Each structure stands twice: as C-alpha cells, then as structure tokens.
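Re: the request from the purification team.
They wanted to know what the chain is likely to look like in 3D before they choose a buffer screen. I agreed to run a prediction and write the result into the notebook, where they can find it.
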Amino acid sequence: MKVYRDLKKKHTFLEMCKTPELACEVTLQPLDVIGVDAAIIFADILLPLEPMGTGLEFSADDGPVIPRPVRDKNAVEKLLSVNAEEQLSFVADAIRLVRQEINIPLIGFAGAPFTLCSYMVEGGKSREFKTTKRMMYEATDVWKLLMDKVCAVLVNYLKMQVAAGAQALQIFDSWVGCVSPGDYEKYILPYSKRVFDDLKDVGVPVINFSTGTSAMLDLMQKAGGDVLSFDWRIQMDSARALLGKEQPVQGNLDPVTLFAPLSIIRKQVHDILRQAGGRGHIFNLGHGILQHTPVEHVKAAAEMVHEYQHE
C-alpha cells in the first residue's frame, strides 16, 4: 500500500517494528481499506534473533541478513536466553495499542523453530538450505541444542503476546517445505510439537502455518495447532479429506491470483470456499501477499468471501 511505502521512506523496517506507535499505525493501515475480519500485528518473525546474539539487519536487495550466523556448537552455546517481556516489549506495547483501536480479533505471531534456525544457520535467505541440512545430518547434537534454545525463546515470546492482548497466534514455518517428509518427522516435528504443546494452555487458538508441505500435511497435523494452514499446491477438498472434517483449516489462494482479472479471482475464491464446505475454514492466501498486488483486487477478494457467505 502507498501509505506503507511512504512511511518506509521515513523509517527503516526495524525502526517501524521496534516503535510501538509506528507498528500500530502499519497494522491499522489496511483494515478499513480492505475489509478483513481480523488484523495481524506488524512485526517480523526474526525479531527474537537479535536479543539471542546473532544480530539482525535488513538490506534493500537481499532482505534479512544475520551478521553472526550460527554454524557450530560453540556458536550455539553462546546464544543468549531471551526475556521477551523486557527485550521484545515493543511488540507487546504495539499489541496493546492496536487492541485499543480495533473491534476485530488481533493475531500475534512468530516463526516456527525450523524456519528461525534455518535463517540463523544460513545467515539469511536460502534456496537449497545446504548448510542447515548438513548440520541436521552431520551434527545432530548441535542441531538439537539449537532447536532446544529456539523453542524456549519462542514459547516465552508467544505467551507474552497473548498476555498483551493477542486473541490468536500464528506460527509461520515458511521454509519447512524444503525438507523431505522423513527428515521433517525426524529432525523437526518433535520441536514444532513441543512449541504447540507448550501453548495449549494460553487460551487462544494457535494456527500452524506452513508452505510447500502438501506432501506431508499429515505430519504437520501431528505437530499440532488448533488450525492447519496450507498453500495452493493442494486442492482444498483434497486437504480436508486427508485431514478429516473436524480439523479447522486456513487458506489457500495463490497470492499471484490477485494479479488476475476479477472474474478469475472470483472463480478461485468461490472454488476454495465451496470445497471447504462452509465450516471450520479461515479464508486466506496460501502465503504472504506480494509486492505491487493491486489493492483494489485484495479488497474485491475480501468482498467475494463475504458475498459467498450470504449466497
């Protein structure tokens, strides 16, 4: 949105994340324009890494950069524990500010253990995740120690968000689709499950959000979460048949569809809603919205969902 781009000319991305008033402003920007039924706090999944000691930077071209990657046992042992209430309090303060301004639910979020660890090991974005996978395979004890530390930070951070007023939580495993089902089950699932299990008593719904995981939705379901979110690489009705009709789901429109003519968007939106069966479904994109997406198409898609509910 232009209002966001204009704000970004005045402040860095991290400044916006760390200034509660700015994070509140950005959270509110799309709500009235698009007409969504819930808000998600403006933050970034990598914010917990900085107090852990890895550093965190954002470059205009390459996105997030981790100045001190974690690639051996010594580096993992040096990672710091995090007191979210003190070191990430700006997120809680932003949540409190937003709750004062809206009358729809507010979602808090964090990255999942694998996705955060892969950023820490790779030092930023990756296509092949070679360094991460080599650690899993060749230094399993180091991998276990790293995942243990990250799980502890995440649970503390997410509970802080609920205490501040978040009415649902979403845990993003954006990169976990890079691994095979067997590797997921062995090296990742136990840690994801630990996080979801530790959040069972927080009193708000928790959404398990992943991409590229159509071949292992049964394992994602086993990891936990009240709602399972998946991307467009599987038909909604196929996913519901696999997961069982009692499993609440979220998704799963391809974000690129929002660049298409409205007639195409309407057909795909209504196909997803029809296949979802009218219950236990949160309509959403299968992954994050893309730059330069026409705002009027996003608004139209939200209207199409609401229209369908009243047909």
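For the purification team: The longest strand covers residues 106-111.
Please add any questions underneath this entry.
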